[in-house]
Amino acid sequence: MAKELRGFSSPDGTSWGVEARMPTASNAMIVFRHPDGGTSRLDRYAWHQWHGPEARSVTSRVSLDAVMKSLGEDTLALLFRRSMPISAGTTPLTGQRAMAVAPGEKYGKMEPRD
Question: Read out DSSP for 41-110?
């Protein structure tokens, strides 16, 4: 069964799909899915801290439905501002692709890492 994504519109007008993943007792990963479904390179994630009764018990786990219901537009906007790229394909400061040392080279030639 496919997960249903909740919609979120970022300040630049991009319509992201939002889903909660990996719940624990005190947090869950919130994934922002980019509308270009061909690649996950543009997806982003942030951690949402849970403050319900489950957070006081290390053996409990918060439900994904409860997390999604607790996410208001203000919370999603805050999480999006704090989110990080899932892929390390570009560096956040320059927007260039990450570089890796070519195989067989210790410190020499650098080539784009895919």
Answer: TT-EEEEEE--SGGGG-TT----HHHHHHH--HHHHHHHHHH-EESS-SB-TTT-PBPEEEPTT-SSS-E
- DSSP-derived letter for residue 18 is E
* Closest of 72, 66, 82 to residue 8, by C-alpha: 72
Whether the predicted model's global pTM rises above the 0.85 cut: no
E strand intervals along the chain: 6-9, 15-21, 27-33, 44-49, 84-85, 99-101, 110-112
Contact 33, 65 (CB under 8 A): no
Each residue's pLDDT tens digit, 42-94: 899 999 988 777 777 777 888 889 889 989 999 999 999 999 988 766 555 65
Residues 6+ apart with CB under 8 A from 40: 33, 34, 86, 87
